[in-house]
Structure formats: structure tokens, C-alpha cells
Specification:
two-stranded antiparallel ribbon; 233 residues; 9-stranded mixed beta sheet; Carbamate kinase; single chain; 20% strand; 11 strands; alpha/beta
Amino acid sequence: MKYRRLLLKLSGEALAGGKGSGIDPAIVASMADAIVRTHQLGADISIVIGAGNIVRGISMSAQGFGRVTGDQMGMLGTVINCLALQDALIERGVDARVLSGVEIGFCEKFSQKSAERHLSKRRILLLAGGTGNPFFTTDTAAALRALEVGADLLIKATKVDGIYDADPVKVPTAQKFETLTLARAVELDLKVMDAAALALCRDNKMPILVCQMEGDNLSKAVRGEKIGTLVTP
């Protein structure tokens, strides 16, 4: 493997599949299968999941809720998603633990030491609760946790197969980037991740792979095969 330890960032919407909201058990099962195959290669895997299929903090604040309240609701949404994926992983015979950035009675509180202990025992980590603070997205949480667990690669799963110079759904002639520097991504305003997440990755030399979560892409990623777009420090 080229990358032994990885942090996988999944969107909450991905768990909803075609439903748009909620959790689609078939999608969760497919994701769990791909994660288990990669884990069996020997990779250490940590996962951060968004909560867009349940609630978005920014959307809730636009509807009249305070931003802090909205973000706290979103943090709870990530716990729900992590529990769903944990259950699917355990059904497949893999030990998976949910560690939360916020205090939840039935989840272990996240710390760097506890994460390292679980990873050393070959457990898959589902990192819920964002950073534990409002005003930070799950993109930023993914970048932060990737650094804390000592990941070699941050993988951001998206709907398209990489980063393009325009929306490929709307612009058929959009060109895909095979590789890209973080500085160039910021300069072109490509919305790879939010500014705080990109700054963390740039300052700490964390590479980001943007690709689709389908088939054996996750296994190909840890082997260093050319898929998606690799964003280098």
C-alpha cells in the first residue's frame, strides 16, 4: 500500500442515496462492503461523515434558529450517521467504534490517544460530532481528525470522479484535473473543501484525494492507483 492510514470524509447526503434525505440501508451496506475490503488490505481507516441528509447548521440558521443551535443539531446528526455505518461494519465482522467530539452517553469521547489505541487494535473509527464546536464544518473536522490520527491521506468522497474546472453536470466541456496543488485549488476557488480545512492541510502537508465512493475506488486509493484528483500540499 502507498497509504497505510487514511481518513475518509463522506457526505451525509451520500447515505441518503436517491432519497435526498434520511438513510438508505442499501447505500450504507455498499459503503460498508467497500470499507471492509480496504481494511482487509491492512489499511487503518477513520471516517468522518456529514449530516446533510438529516440537518445542516447553516440551513437551520437561515430558517430562524441560532447558528450555534443549528450547528449543534448538525453535530447530533453526524452521530446518527456514524451509528448507522458502525452497525453495518459490525455486521460484516469488523470491530468499529464511534468516537464523538461532543459528549454523548453511548459514544466514547474523542481524544488522540484513544483514537491511536483503537487503530492499533485494527478497529475502524467513526468520528462523529464534528470538531465539537459550532462554526466549523465537517470538512474542517475531517482535516483536523486526519492530522490527529496521523493519516497519510485524506480522501473526500464526492458525486463526481474528481475536481473539474467547472461543474461537469452543467458544463459538458469541463476539464478534469489529474493532480492539483492546494495553492492552485484556492486560487481557482474550486471549492475542494472549505478554507479552514484547506489551510490545515496546506500548513501540515496533508494530501487530499477527491474521488467517487464506488466500486473498489477506496482500495485503489490506498494502493496509490490513479483515480480522482490528487491535491498535493
